[in-house]
Amino acid sequence: PNPATTEAYIEILKPKGEYYLTIYNELGSAIYSHSGQSNLLRIDLRACIPGIYLFRIQSGNSSVVKKIIIQ
């Protein structure tokens, strides 16, 4: 759900091999990174302060950025 409070689930549709996920805070600093091949990822957000964050997912030659609000 967006906004999120304690956790977020990211579904990678049709991953092309390994993907890379990076979460950035409002200042543009990377606060979390993960690489994997599973199409579903659970992220614990309890350590994040409330605010707006960007999720960047890279897979193959594709890159997607999504915004999430953490309350």
Question: How does this model look, in words?
Answer:
With 71 residues, the protein is mainly β. Helices cover 0% and strands 58% of the residues. It is built from no helices and six strands. The strands form two sheets. It has a four-stranded antiparallel beta sheet, with no helix packed on it. Strands 1-4 form a two-stranded antiparallel ribbon. The termini are close together. The mean pLDDT is 89.
Task: Quickly describe the structure.
With 71 residues, the protein is an all-beta fold. It is built from no helices and six strands.
Average of per-residue pLDDT values: 89
Query: Over all CA atoms, what is the radius of gyration?
Result: 12 Å
Could you say which structural class the secondary elements and strand pairing correspond to? mainly beta
- Widest sheet, order of strands: 3-2-5-6
Spatial shape: globular
SSE order, as H and E? Answer: EEEEEE
Number of helices: 0
Query: Which percent band covers the strand fraction?
Result: over 45%
Task: Return residue spans where pLDDT drops below 50 for at least 5 consecutive residues.
Answer: none
- Secondary structure: helix percent: under 10%
State the end-to-end distance.
11 Å
Tally the beta strands.
6
* Main beta sheet: 4 strands, antiparallel
